[in-house]
Write a structure and sequence with these properties.
Length: 227
């Protein structure tokens, strides 16, 4: 693992302006704000990954939430999806607390690192293919720098697809036919085990498509694989 490399990557991610649509949206959201957060200063920039640089488990999400990570400056922090994710990481021994509301709230990850396929909040949570492709090299470099990672948990099909693209870019042999996403899906891809998990979005958690035992089973499996 290269601390210097991760710090340099973080600086590059935060300063990125490659996608005009995403730049305009993230900055508009940060300027207009949600009524309940009017007193807060929004981050309004791309989000780097964070966590344990010696992690054995890498968690990859879709993108920051407009009033979550785009507000707090930390992916999955300050929104309902994050409450589900960090709650599960706490219950399975990867996080020291079950919630995260701000960048400086004391959250520490041990054995896990969190990143996203797209680093800016996209309108309607739907990045365009070109925006995904612009962001992909950051994730390629991140995976290369996180030398201890052996398990990659993808939150949703978008992250699953992006991860397979990342591994192909790293010249890892991706199985053919291309593995399909599903909750609980598990596939060996070179030195990595790829695990699929439904995204902890409100659309999935409110409807019962994703339950706490379901998400805990994925992170429990990840824990077993890196022991």
């Amino acid at each position: 693992m290269s601390d210097a490399g991760l710090r340099e990557l973080e600086r590059e991610v935060i300063s990125c302006r490659l996608c005009p649509r995403l730049v305009a949206w993230r900055e508009e959201v940060a300027r207009v704000k949600r009524a309940s957060f009017t007193s807060e200063e929004y981050w309004g920039k791309p989000l780097p990954g964070f966590g344990d640089p010696d992690a054995g488990v890498l968690v990859i999400g879709l993108a920051p939430a407009a009033h979550g990570g785009n507000r707090t400056g930390r992916i999955f922090t300050g929104d309902r999806s994050g409450d589900w994710l960090f709650g599960s990481l706490y219950r399975t021994g990867f996080a020291n607390q079950p919630t995260s509301v701000a960048r400086d709230d004391g959250l520490t990850l041990t054995g896990a690192y969190i990143a996203a396929a797209v680093r800016c909040a996209p309108p309607a949570n739907k990045p365009m293919p070109a925006e995904r492709d612009n962001c992909l090299p950051y994730l390629v470099r991140e995976v290369g720098l996180l030398e201890s990672v052996r398990v990659i948990v993808t939150l949703g099909s978008f992250a699953w697809d992006a991860t397979l693209r990342v591994l192909a870019a790293l010249e890892v042999a991706v199985p053919r036919p291309r593995p399909k996403f599903g909750h609980g899906a598990s596939v060996e891809v070179g030195p990595f085990t790829l695990l699929g998990c439904f995204h902890p979005s409100q659309q999935n958690t409110f409807t019962g498509k994703l339950t706490e035992p379901m998400i805990d089973s994925v992170f429990g499996r990840a824990r077993e694989l890196v022991r």
